[in-house]
Design a protein that fits this description.
The protein has 508 residues and is α/β, with parallel strands linked by helices. It is built from 9 helices and 22 strands. The longest helix is centred in the middle third of the chain and has 23 residues.
């Protein structure tokens, strides 16, 4: 692992020998990546149950996309694809990661952070990571520096959660070490068996006083909430769920202050609105939808804090902000937080069918906003078909970056589309469902490949999966809800999409 003194030395040299000059040539770039935020969850996308004034401001001053897609319907593969420019389904082990997963993006891979770093940027990652740490799954020593971490992937500074808030370890990792590590409470993590002497949510549900489990999430208990995986220790390093957003955003804003004189790239992956939803008390009651709605309000606040910092630091005209989500929404994902009961007519996926995990549109079609004063026309809406897979190549085009042969193999330059200069569609986008079922979507059609032993409904989450053992074809230009499978009536179209998918799988 690269040591911190090297990090600070490199930053000083960058400032002395061209960092400030680079800032005049290239804008800062901030990607704000929400978690489980649906197409219909924001005011600027039609919601009326939660006020989101800060994100509304982004849309009013930037370009809002209505046909934008995450690469996958679950977290880990979407994040992998965004950061590497490679479809996650090309690489084994990119499913929803355990909290003690080994690094899924390997040090030898070229990442979006590497790209910015090599163009003179200072790079930082904050919040949810969920892409593994250390060399191998289940072998991390959380009481010592991790042998491999985000500095091996191009990030100069990182303050992250190893996985998700509902998975152990429930501590922040700062530059490859547990932040505020407590030597009096050494950390032990196990995903295979309970840790002797440690109460679990299954055996002691009464200890889950902050959130009750509905299904799963009944192993380790941290901060009165059951988690996935077993954990012991942590002491002063354990997070408080109600303070997660404050801690993540606080460290991100401090990074901006420290590097305001040089160009920076910041990957800010919020925890909201992933379960367990336990927002700070100051956001309670801010919506008509209980904790899930309040968590959206907290997400909006997080965006506002970043924007306030940009204004205070006089960086507004020098910064691109890209706001989006990793996949579609899920209402009940394992905790009794009344998210389903308190929807009050709200449709998290808007007019779309399906949700997180699904092969239907609701799984991968997400909000996306690009804000860049004086370069992206304010208050514009684009219905161009775009995919997050192209962000790496598009930003690379903006930087005029030189990338190694084979880097970002599935990412194409769509810079003019992402900045609203044109509305050129991507020829097709690929969507990956939770069980690896792939879909190919064009402006007019969507093809979902057949899968073996399809499980059409996730009973506990109440989600339509979109899986079927027969080919599915929907004319999404007129059938946005994907109600009518017209594969039998359009065999030639089915064949054309099957051919496209075969070629994509071959890397053509």
């Amino acid at each position: 692992m690269k040591r911190n003194y090297l990090y600070f030395t490199s930053l000083s040299l960058a400032a002395m020998y061209g960092g400030v000059v680079q800032a005049q040539q290239h804008p800062n770039v901030i990607i704000i990546y929400a978690d489980d935020l649906g197409y219909g969850d924001l005011e600027c996308y039609g919601d009326q149950n939660v006020a989101t004034p800060q994100i509304n401001r982004l849309a009013a001053e930037g370009c809002r996309f209505t046909n934008a897609f995450a690469v996958a319907a679950t977290s880990t593969p979407s994040r992998y694809s965004l950061l590497t420019g490679q479809y996650a389904w090309r690489k084994a082990g990119t499913d929803i990661a355990r909290g003690d997963a080994g690094m899924i993006i390997r040090p030898e891979q070229y990442t979006i952070a590497d790209m910015f770093k090599n163009e003179g940027y200072v790079t930082g990652a904050f919040g949810k990571w969920h892409l593994g740490l250390g060399d191998k799954t289940g072998t991390q020593d959380w009481n010592a520096p991790l042998p491999t971490g985000l500095d091996d992937l191009g990030f100069d500074y990182s303050y992250i959660m190893a996985a998700t808030a509902d998975r152990v370890p429930c501590v922040f990792i700062e530059n490859g070490r547990v932040a505020n590590w407590d030597p009096s409470a050494p950390i032990e993590v196990d995903y295979t068996k309970p840790i002797p002497g440690e109460p679990t949510g299954k055996e002691h549900p009464e200890l889950c006083y902050n959130q009750k489990s509905d299904f799963g999430h009944n192993m380790a208990i941290v901060n009165g909430i059951g988690r996935i995986g077993y954990m012991k220790g942590g002491g002063k390093a354990l997070w408080k769920d109600e303070n997660l957003a404050d801690s993540i955003v606080g460290h991100a804003v401090n990074f901006m202050k420290l590097h305001q004189k040089e160009p920076f790239f910041m990957y800010l992956a919020t925890n909201d609105i992933h379960v367990p939803r336990f927002p700070n008390a100051r956001f309670r009651g801010k919506s008509k939808m209980g904790l899930r709605g309040d968590a959206i309000a907290q997400l909006d606040w997080s965006v506002g804090e970043v924007m306030k910092a940009l204004k205070k630091l006089k960086l507004e005209d020098k910064t691109i902000v890209i706001f989006s989500s990793d996949n579609g929404p899920v209402v009940n994902d394992g905790y009794k937080d009344q998210a389903e009961e308190l929807l009050n007519g709200h449709r998290p996926a808007g007019p779309l069918r399906g949700n997180k995990y699904s092969a239907f549109e609701g799984g991968t079609r997400i909000p996306a906003i690009v804000w860049w004063p004086k370069h992206v026309a304010a208050g514009t809406t684009s219905d161009a078909l775009v995919s997050q897979i192209d962000l790496m190549a598009s930003l690379g085009h903006m930087l005029n970056a030189r990338m190694p042969k084979g880097a970002a193999p599935d990412s194409f330059n769509a810079w003019d589309t992402w900045t609203g200069k044109d509305h050129k569609d991507r020829a097709w986008v690929v969507e990956e469902a939770a069980n690896h079922t792939l879909s190919v979507r064009s402006r007019e059609w969507k093809y979902i490949e057949p899968c073996d032993n399809p499980y059409k409904f996730m009973e506990l989450e109440k989600i339509e999966t979109g899986y079927d053992d027969k080919p599915q074809l929907y004319r999404v230009s007129s059938d946005v809800h994907e109600d009518h499978n017209v594969a039998n009536e359009n065999p030639q179209v089915v064949y054309e999409f099957q051919k496209i998918l075969r070629n994509i799988k071959k890397g053509h």
